């Protein structure tokens, strides 16, 4: 389970001591939460807290009232059978079970009861003896980080990763309740960027009627959420940071509204009504004077004006290389069919360099503004987005280093090198490498070795950037399986851009 558990869109409901030591009351809370979970069709988790009180509290302090928690823990104690009964209700309701252990004996109880997830409280996130015990269970783990310095979070992450623990991490503020000015929700974004391989969530202690925080947390990238829950009755009062089932209903609704508002993670085409609205404000291209068929259209030959008519070229699609497809009268609209004319190679290069720059920015990989790039297009620039790659040659001495960029769905065909040995390391995106017929799907950071004489090819689905470290690169040391590529001279399948930033700027001005 620990290798397969998915933490995303998980809603954790912390029962804590709000069961008040009353099993029947605890079961009523679970039922109330289950109704909300079923209504919203989310992945719901009910969480206990375990302490072996006989050993957890020092015997000389059992009557002490200086620590406000001791008497609360003792007064709300539930025997093992009571937790077994509540666990049975969790399972009956189709919910996931979780528990926070505060000592090693409680970890043994979790294992004996078969609870699904272990949650580490912020106060235990640096309790190495307890963490060592938890790491040995093989259970999925969720750990909160309230009050921790970034260096201590890094220690925690390193420990759990070295123990091969499948875990998620929660931003949390241990102030009960947490006011708006103390939520620190930017920390969610910080944790996601610092630890991109880890699911990051939000464990909340704000006032129950605060439905804004969960929306912001989702927008900042939180992938799972935790809230204290309870049920006020004539007998039991609810604390200031726990939510009733009715408040949880509104809390999840706020989350759902945030999901709808944020939309997809990738850029999609504009909404139909959005495009229509923008089109009504756009300018069309009109002939300023009579134009002959096959005449190259100059800027002085046209003007731009509203309204944009049907099947008319927009001002945004205007380019100097356009040629009249027919005879045009003065003031006549220019047909949008001209936008289908072949794009000059300089513009193809400009467009793909923009795409490459965007990918490098996303990956936080920066190269010098005056760097030269090599566009490898095995079947021409027109088919570059299908076959090819962009290469940044960094070093070529007794050793060589390159950055290789593959656009989405791009393939690099089978070839080998007689002399060069190379190692690929995936820095960004996804990539599959095939060497001598054996496929390897690479994860970020993975390396593969390609020895001289080995046939190899690679491709990506969503785009990739990898580093190639090799022996000296030689221009005549690449041999392709496809005879069409092999027959082409090097200058027919390569385009060099001496200064890529300059190229982008010059073409952007056209």
Major β-sheet annotation? 8 strands, parallel, barrel
Range of helix content: 25-40%
| CATH top level assignment of the largest domain | Alpha Beta
Shape: globular
- Examine the secondary-structure arrangement and name the CATH architecture of the largest domain: Alpha-Beta Barrel
Structural class: alpha/beta
Spatial order of the strands in the main sheet? 1-2-3-4-5-6-7-8
Under CATH, the topology of the largest domain can be stated as TIM Barrel
Distance between the termini: 57 Å
Helix count, DSSP H or I runs of 4 or more residues: 14
**How many structural units, i.e. domains?**
3
The count of DSSP E runs of length 2 or more, i.e. the number of strands, is 22
**Backbone CA Rg:** 31 Å
Low-confidence stretches: none
Fourth CATH level, the homologous superfamily of the largest domain: Aldolase class I
Rounded mean pLDDT is 92
- Strand % is 15-25%
Give the SSE map.
Blueprint: E1 10-14, H1 23-40, E2 43-50, H2 53-56, H3 68-75, H4 80-92, E3 96-101, H5 104-113, E4 117-120, H6 128-135, E5 141-144, H7 150-162, E6 167-172, H8 186-194, E7 199-203, H9 212-220, E8 224-228, H10 245-262, H11 272-279, E9 284-287, E10 302-305, H12 345-362, E11 373-376, E12 389-396, E13 399-406, E14 411-416, E15 422-429, E16 431-435, E17 438-442, E18 447-450, E19 456-459, E20 464-471, E21 479-480, H13 483-487, E22 494-497, H14 500-508
Parallel strand pairs: 1-2, 1-8, 2-3, 3-4, 4-5, 5-6, 6-7, 7-8
Antiparallel strand pairs: 9-10, 11-12, 11-22, 12-13, 13-20, 14-19, 14-21, 15-18, 15-20, 16-17, 16-19
Helix pairs in contact: 1-4, 1-10, 9-10, 12-14
